[in-house]
Amino acid sequence: MHDPVVIRQLVARGRRRDQWFAIIGLACMMVGVLTLAVLLVGLVQDGAHRLEWSFFENFPSRRAERAGILSALVGSSLVMLITASTAIPVGVAAGVYLEEYARKNWLTDLIEINVTNLAGVPSIIYGLLALGLFVYALDFGQSILSAGLTLALMILPVIIVATRESIRAIPGAIREAAYAVGASRWQTVRDHILPYSTGGILTGVIIGLARAIGETAPVITIGALTFIAFLPPAPLSTEFPFVSFDWLESPFTVMPIQMFNWLSRPQAAFQENAAAAGIVLVVMTLVMNGLAIWLRIRFRKRIKW
């Protein structure tokens, strides 16, 4: 039998290690949180006074006091609409197929390795790929559609990986119980697998969309404008058929490019405009994240264990 004194010493040593690990982890977290807080405070101090209604309803201008973010704000919103509506269903469907339907062989392993590696590919590579595929080969032009599909390709691996990891975390007993009562594979996936894995899937969606909304290199590569003083055609109209898709082919700009344009100018007033646009971009990201978290909570409440 072990000496009780030795056992107590080992337990005490393990507790001290746990305490030190907790302290180091807390310190690392505080470094990140405080750094982000300092950056946000500086951003607010520089640009908060520019957040007037005119800043949101004006187009970019050579005069800093008259410049606004209307075209960039609308462009970012429409591009993210295309990105989300494309990447989320395709990414989730691909993750479900690879995890629940695909046979485990060398081809599946090869696809898994490539999907995982694509999540770490620099964004400029996606821009070059989209330039050749969407802009030239498919002739979509330098448009909102090309930008949205480019960003969708960029975040697709993140959503696929998150979907697969969420599905893997579901106990196998749930599948076995569904099959035992006569459910088909699709019924099991629809009624059990997807509802239980919604939280993890939405986490991957949040990470992907938060990355996409702040990207600059891919949209610059496919031809986003640095100065644009008009809006794309409205998606809805008062005339039949009441829905228009002409806005998909419209030239565009996005918030990060507008900020870069202002930051490249020496005047302090344009620097303040860039800070104000940065605040708006952060708020847009928080709103998207908040919406995804709200949806995740709602889905979890609807699950019946």
Q: Structural class of the secondary structure composition?
A: mainly alpha
State the end-to-end CA separation.
45 Å
* CATH architecture identity of the largest domain: Orthogonal Bundle
Count up the helices.
Answer: 11
Determine the CATH superfamily of the largest domain. Answer: MetI-like
What is the highest CATH level, the class of the largest domain? Mainly Alpha
* Percent in strands: under 5%
Total beta strands: 0
Topology:
Elements: H1 4-47, H2 53-57, H3 70-101, H4 106-118, H5 123-137, H6 144-168, H7 172-180, H8 185-213, H9 217-221, H10 255-263, H11 268-302
Helix pairs in contact: 1-11, 3-6, 3-8, 3-10, 4-6, 5-6, 6-8, 7-8, 8-11, 10-11
Q: What can you see in these coordinates?
A:
The protein has 305 residues and is mainly α. It has two domains: 1-50; 51-302, MetI-like fold. 72% of the residues lie in helices and 0% in strands. It contains eleven helices and no strands. It has helices spanning 4-47, 53-57, 70-101, 106-118, 123-137, 144-168, 172-180, 185-213, 217-221, 255-263, 268-302. Helix 5 packs across helix 6 (144-168) and helix 10 runs antiparallel to helix 11 (268-302). The radius of gyration is 24 Å and the shape is globular. The protein starts with a helix and ends with a helix. The model has no long low-confidence stretch (mean pLDDT 83).
